[in-house]
Write a structure and sequence with these properties.
There is one protein chain. The chain has 199 residues and is mainly beta. It has one domain: Sulfite Oxidase, Chain A, domain 2. It is 8% helix and 33% strand. It has three helices and twelve strands, in the order ββββαββαββββββα. The protein has helices spanning 58-61, 91-98, 177-180; strands at 2-5, 20-21, 43-48, 54-57, 67-74, 79-90, 106-111, 116-120, 130-135, 138-139, 149-151, 164-170. The strands form two sheets. Strands 1, 2, 5, 6, 9, 10 and 11 form a seven-stranded mixed β-sheet that branches. A five-stranded mixed β-sheet has the order 4-3-12-7-8.
């Protein structure tokens, strides 16, 4: 497995404004019930504006090459966890397979339970973007998104969607669940882009 060390700090700062650090145990925050993972029925798809639509079973997914990425995580609810080691499939590997079309500027992350979130496609080309199945050497816990979550460390953690089942590539932005319910459309922790409204 290839290992990628990413310096996600801005200068000497590690913790964005308004955040506090948590230790080994990190909060489990979920809307709705935690899905049950069935490896026999699980699949992952890439659809929409791509040259090569993809579908993987769980067994096929586990045949893909893996990397480890070390990166910090920042939750919109104000906690930060530093030096996470995420293991899984590098996002750029799947982009190479799917070949998004030039007009694909955004994607919708589609998860179990009908949850979605929206992200610009360019974020998947960042070196620390990963489809993670493991955290710090252990398989993801159910509450943290097992069997797989998208991890985009540069954005608040709700963009690192849990229980991921697919990506749909789009020409136009399509706000997801939290974005439609008051969260910022982009979510940069360093700009404190937490909400789409002011208090």
């Amino acid at each position: 497995m290839e290992r990628i060390e990413i310096d996600t700090a801005r200068g000497k700062e590690r913790v964005p404004p308004g955040q506090y650090l948590v230790g080994d145990r990190w909060p489990i925050l979920t809307y709705g019930t935690t899905p049950t993972f069935d490896p026999q029925s699980w699949d992952f798809t890439i659809t929409g504006l791509v040259e090569n639509p993809l579908r993987f079973t769980w067994d096929e997914w586990n045949e893909l090459p893996t990397v480890a990425v070390k990166a910090d995580m920042h939750c919109v609810t104000s906690w930060s966890k530093l030096d996470n080691v995420w293991s899984g499939v590098h996002a750029e590997h799947l982009l190479d397979m799917a070949e998004p079309k030039p007009e694909a500027k955004f994607f919708s992350a589609i998860c179990d339970g009908g949850y979605t979130t929206n992200v610009p496609v360019e974020e998947l080309y960042e070196e620390d973007a990963i489809f993670a199945t493991h955290h710090n050497g252990e398989p993801l816990e159910a509450g943290h998104g097992a069997p797989m979550r998208l991890v985009i460390p540069r954005l608040y953690a709700w963009k690192s969607a849990k229980w991921l089942r697919g990506l749909e590539f789009l020409a136009e932005d399509k706000p997801g669940f939290w974005e439609e319910n008051g969260y910022h459309n982009y979510g940069d922790p360093w700009q404190e882009q937490r909400y789409s409204f002011s208090f």
